[in-house]
Amino acid sequence: MRIEQLICFNEVKKLHSFSKAADALFLSQSSLSKQIKALEEEIGEPLFLRRRNAAQLTPAGRKIAPYAEEMTAAYEKMLSSVKGSSLSKTQESLKAAAFFNMGACAAGRAVAAFEARRPDFRIDILECSHSQMRSYMKSGGAEIFIGYREFLAPDDAFDEMPLAAEPLALVVGSEHPLAAAGRINLADVKNERFCFPREDPELFLYYLNNCAKNGFAPFLTHSDVRLSTLKNYISAGMRCTIQMKDAAESFFSDPRFKLIEIADVAPLTLSLIFPRGELSPLARQFIKFMREYFVFPG
Predict the structure, then answer these.
(1) Which pLDDT tens digit goes with each residue over 88-143?
(2) How deeply is 209 buried, as exposed, middle or buried, from its count of CB atoms within 10 A (0-12, 13-18, 19+)?
(3) What is the C-alpha to C-alpha distance for residues 259 and 175, in angstroms, rounded to an integer?
(4) 64 assigned to some structural domain
(5) pLDDT band for position 144 (cuts 50, 70, 90)
(6) Residue 177, C-beta contacts closer than 8 angstroms, at least 6 positions apart
(7) Per-residue pLDDT for 6 more than 80?
(8) 281 φ, ψ to 5°?
(9) Which of 126, 182, 242, 267 would you label with 72, given CA atoms 20 to 30 Å apart?
């Protein structure tokens, strides 16, 4: 049993909603659900009745509720006693929303490099789809946003700092006939079998729409899988995929795969987006660091 599971349990109990609890804890709803599921598996019984508009405690949930509150309160008290004050006062934090798999890209490395300079600092990152990020931009759910400008379309209330131009890449197995190619046009792969994750609907449609612009509808297979599952299909020569090059270089870095630059699709613009006007000192420091970390081409 982990303290994170109990914290998630307490928040769902308090708000009677998985989605509201996820927002309050700055987690994706799937991450929060996994924490609750793991706790339920350890307890051996369901803890919530999941209804359309509310999450209600089951008898087992009501039994463990006072213990969960007591344990999390003891945990917070322990942290306070060790650090001499509350966690919120000893460690500053910055809330950021970023696209899925950001941690495997240059933006993720930059975030880690920034945190390494500040042991008293943490950045709370919610990895989510671009549509979710747009929602957070409207609600003020985060102070910093890292994503593709073309999908976020910031208005006059936001400033934008371009970080990098990110091209597309085709990923095939090392034994694929195209593996020897350095660059291709999308029309060259119209007869291939494709596999795309759907975690981020905007990126999924971006891949499909670019295929359509080149005169074909991709033959999709297993389109709901994650990149880790795609590796098995691609290495076996059964599928190929299109991904943003930076992420693909991290996920498909071993010799079983070959990345091929796609020549006839304009790159997307990876950007740091933040509200205009007053920002926290940490946000300003982070923006300054990112400006120095990235050299945007053009």
Answers:
(1) 444 578 899 999 888 878 898 999 888 888 777 788 888 889 998 998 898 888 99
(2) exposed
(3) 12
(4) yes
(5) very high
(6) none
(7) yes
(8) -55, -35
(9) 126
Question: End of a domain among 85, 115, 132?
Answer: 85
> How big is the chain, counted in residues?
298
| Total number of domains constituting the chain | 3
Cα separation, 45 vs 37, in Å, equals 10
Most confident range (mean pLDDT) of 22-26, 170-174, 230-234 is 170-174
Query: What mean pLDDT is predicted for residues 188-197?
Result: 91
Smallest CA-to-CA distance from 174 within 228, 233, 234, 226 is with 234
3-15 and 59-83 are packed helices; what angle lies between their axes, rounded to 10 degrees?
120
Indicate if 147 and 277 belong to the same structural domain.
Answer: yes
- Which one-letter amino acid corresponds to residue 222? H
CATH number at residue 109: 3.40.190.10
Average pLDDT, the chain: 87
Judge whether 298 lies within some domain: no
**pLDDT tens digit sequence for 32-83:** 888 899 999 999 999 999 887 789 999 999 999 999 999 988 877 776 666 5
Containing structural domain, residue 181: 168-262
Q: Model pTM? A: 0.70
Asked if residue 162 lies in contact with residue 270, where contact means CB atoms within 8 angstroms, the answer is yes
